[in-house]
Fold this sequence. Notes:
alpha+beta, Alpha-Beta Plaits, 3 domains, 291 residues, 7 helices, Helix Hairpins, 21% strand, five-stranded antiparallel beta sheet, SH3 type barrels
Amino acid sequence: MAIEELYKGTITGLTDNELWLNFGNAALRVIVILVVSRLIVWAIHKTINRGVLEREIKRLPSHVRRMRTVGKLLKNVASYVVYFIAGMLVLSEFGIDLGPLLAGAGVLGLAIGFGAQSLVKDIITGFFIVLEDQFAVGDVIQTGQFKGTVEMIGLRTTRIQSWTGEVHIVPNGMINEVTNFSINNTLAVVDISIAFEEEVDRALEVIRFTMISMQDENLVNAPEVLGIQAIAPTGVTLRVIAECRPNTHSIVSRKLNMEIKKALDSSGIEIPYPRMVTYHRNEKGGVKDGA
């Protein structure tokens, strides 16, 4: 008997046109909410991109980095806010009272403020990273053991891609010390060793002539030959420096080494190599030199 009543109640519910009409209206409203929220996010992102682009044209190159980073941060914040509101509206369509839910969310937020201190620390640190312009998207930085190009600065984490392809996700609260390689010009330092027997003045002249004629888009000024850096038993070390664009010192150093090596080879100037001097004792107990 109970099974029959349950069966009849189920059939009656499934055939209730008003129930299906209400369900269809709710589903339609949920779809509209999701679509509208997506359109709002798209419009906000477009507006932010347009505003950042207009300000980039008017600002100095050093300020462009901050504008792009602030733009990405604003888009993240806008997305979170819009999707949170959309989620609340969707829940209201299923008959959930938002009043107690929002009150509970306030209490939960207070509890999170005490319990999830690391999360709050990450968000506050990320805010000050952007505010103080410590680094921006596209910069090459090193924090701790991670070094690479900044791909994204979020509210909680920063994404860094190393030059070998690995992607590191670093919580902002763990970024205590940062070395930024993309702000100022860098210095390429190259040390060249020549054999002790070679004429130092001639080697310096060959290197200077090579550096004057060297062309590279990363060079800011012509390379400068400083002179003798060190003297060793088998050779003399000469030092060359070159001011280059940010984070290009490795590329410039490799090119300097190549050009200097070619110039020394063409001039017949040898690099140091190990030498050994032997002494041969004669029959009378004397010593004579030998090589």
